[in-house]
């Protein structure tokens, strides 16, 4: 990816290598969830652990990924020690109970949650101005909650994307909503925009930024200076919103993976 101008470039770009990493420690081999990010502001390799107990590796712009792997291997005991001292990662249900809203159509929609229920249900009536969610995490499991949220996300994110495309004179062939491991979205040369369902968990302006970011690729398919200049025409605060998106990624991207993730 070509480095863009400082005024419009994003501050960090997730790599495609998110997943499980096996580390050899003094007590044996462990598996940890790992998120790789490249930051134009980073001068050195940096290792942190996010709220989802995911190891986050930040690489400087020209640092080879292989060097990042070696760096993490040297910090295996640090990873074990810090993961052991941290509480369990936040569940999706706990996140929703704390946030109490979902994002659609450029606004926060209040979320009314009911637990200890026999049958899970998701009810959204736009005229009512709120969402009703019935779900018992212990009884139904997180996969059921993810499925309900993803179905709703497919509806509202597609509409928001098509509305923006029409407003800016862009032509979208298709909108899909998926469960990407490390990307917020993508855009193909054929005009298909794919979005991560977790966008409904982000603040409205950040959700809109991601949608506009992908729509901008309908004009420019790379991340050249020309691309960032065009994106800034769609969102004058693109650089600011990208930095906020990077900060929120450590809180949101790991949600909804509890039953599938490999943990220490």
For the termini, the CA-CA separation is 33 Å
Mean pLDDT: 85
Strand content: 25-35%
According to DSSP, the number of beta strands is: 12
Q: Which segments are poorly predicted (pLDDT under 50) over 5 or more consecutive residues?
A: 1-16, 259-264
The outline comes out as flat
How many helix segments?
Answer: 8
Query: Could you state the order of secondary-structure elements as H and E?
Result: EEEEEHHHEEEEHHEEEHHH
Could you give a short description of this structure?
Helices cover 36% and strands 25% of the residues. The protein has helices spanning 65-74, 76-84, 92-99, 137-140, 142-167, 204-216, 225-234, 238-252, and strands at 12-14, 19-25, 28-39, 46-49, 55-59, 101-104, 107-114, 121-125, 130-134, 174-178, 185-187, 192-196. The strands form three sheets. Strands 1, 2, 3, 4 and 5 form a five-stranded mixed sheet that branches. A four-stranded mixed sheet has the order 6-7-9-8. A three-stranded mixed sheet has the order 10-12-11, with helices on one face.
């Amino acid at each position: 990816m070509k480095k863009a101008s400082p005024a419009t470039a994003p501050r960090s770009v997730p790599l495609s290598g998110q997943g499980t990493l096996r580390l050899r420690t003094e007590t044996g081999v462990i598996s940890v969830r790992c998120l790789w990010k490249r930051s134009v502001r980073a001068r050195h390799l940096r290792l942190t652990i996010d709220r989802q107990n995911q190891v986050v590796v930040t690489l400087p712009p020209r640092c080879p990924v292989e060097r990042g792997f070696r760096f993490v291997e040297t910090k295996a005991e640090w990873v074990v020690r810090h993961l052991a001292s941290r509480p369990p990662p936040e569940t999706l249900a706990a996140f929703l109970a704390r946030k109490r809203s979902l994002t659609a159509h450029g606004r926060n929609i209040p979320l009314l949650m009911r637990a200890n229920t026999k049958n899970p249900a998701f009810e959204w009536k736009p005229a009512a101005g709120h969402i009703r969610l019935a779900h018992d995490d212990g009884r139904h499991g997180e996969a059921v909650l993810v499925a309900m949220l993803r179905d709703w996300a497919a509806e509202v994110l597609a509409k928001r994307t098509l509305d923006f495309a029409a407003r800016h004179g862009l032509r979208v062939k298709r909108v899909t909503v998926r469960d990407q491991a490390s990307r917020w979205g993508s855009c193909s040369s054929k005009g298909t925009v794919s979005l991560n369902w977790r966008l409904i968990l982000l603040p409205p302006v950040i959700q809109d930024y991601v949608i506009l970011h992908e729509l901008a690729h309908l004009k420019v398919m790379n991340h050249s200076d020309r691309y960032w200049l065009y994106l800034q025409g769609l969102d004058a605060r693109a650089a600011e919103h990208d930095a906020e998106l990077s900060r929120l990624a450590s809180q949101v991207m790991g949600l909804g993976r509890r039953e599938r993730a490999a943990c220490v």
